[in-house]
Amino acid sequence: MSNYLQDLIRAFKPNTSVSKMTMTLIIVVQVIIALAAWYSSSEILPRPPEIFGAFNRLLKGGDLIRELFTSMGLCLQAMGLAILISLALSYLTVLPFFRPTAFIVSKGRFLTLVGLSFVFTLLTSGGHNLKVSLMVFGITVFFVTSAIAMIQAIPKTEFNHARTLGMSEWQTVWEVIILGRLHEVFEIIRQNFAISWMMLTMVEGISRAEGGIGAMLLNQNKHLHLDAVFAIQILILLVGIGMDYLIGVIKNIICPYASLSLERR
User: Fold this and answer.
1) Burial status of residue 161 (CB atoms within 10 A of its CB: 0-12, 13-18, 19 or more)
2) How far is it, in rounded angstroms, from Cα 232 to Cα 228?
3) pTM, rounded to two decimals
């Protein structure tokens, strides 16, 4: 009992670890506290049974799953285009000619999409292209920033080591930057997928012709169906967590050496 109490006390000390049993207990206690706070909150907020009922109602209507797949298609399309554009621009920063362009693009993260929506409306045709363009822009400016920081953080010794092996400068770029940092690219993708998934509500609210989970969320919020709003929000959260986990699995399959290096550390 004393050992267990000591392990529990360690949970309040910085830079320490606890046993799995203690961590499980901590999680259970925090979940209970969160649920108690939820139930004791204002009557305005829907309770878990009400949210579960709203979820079943939306699911039986058949709209929820269809709108979810619509949003997933939009998000994956925008994410794919943003990855191609961002990586191409970031890798080209090895050439001094492209560094100012990448620098300007990275500063675009301080712009708001609301202010740029009219510009993209004039540049694109159709609601779908507008939504894709807005999401690609919103993802790219953050992706390029992270990718450039990743490249700049590579130690010079790795480049020198590649040169001593007789590699040309382009071979060095391929081995050290592209292949050598592929596992870090997957982490950047995970971070930016969360950004794109969070942007869906705003982007789909600009053009609701194709529907989507964001448009459904805005419609339910407009009519003050808070139980349905919370149900959709929880679904968005769970799908986002699932996609984040899936990207991590793909990274471990393609870059198994990344997990090995972390274990050695």
Assistant:
1) middle
2) 6
3) 0.83
pLDDT tens across 147-198, in order?
A: 999 999 999 999 999 999 999 999 999 999 999 899 999 999 999 998 888 8
**Residue whose tokens read 């705003």:** 202
The DSSP secondary-structure symbol of 46 reads P
Distance of CA 112 to the CA centre of its chain: 18
User: What's the Cα-to-Cα distance from 2 to each of 7, 9, 11, rounded to whole Å?
Assistant: 9, 10, 15
CA separation for the pair 98, 89 (Å, rounded): 8
- In order, the DSSP letters of 64-79 are HHHHHHHHHHHHHHHH
CA distances from 54 to 48, 71, 82, 186, 226 (A): 10, 20, 35, 36, 9
Quote the tokens at residue 15.
């830079």
| 9 Rama sector, left if φ>0, alpha if ψ -120 to 50, beta otherwise | alpha
* Site of tokens 């700049």: 152
DSSP 8-state code for residue 174? I
Helix (H, G, I), strand (E, B) or coil at 119: helix
**DSSP assignment, residue 126?**
S
Furthest C-alpha separation in the chain? 71
Cα Rg of the chain, angstroms: 23
Q: Quickly tell me which residue has 């339910």 as its tokens.
A: 220
Which amino acid does the sequence have at 96?
P
Query: Which DSSP state fits 177?
Result: I
Which residues does 116 contact at the CB level (< 8 Å), separation at least 6? Answer: 134, 137
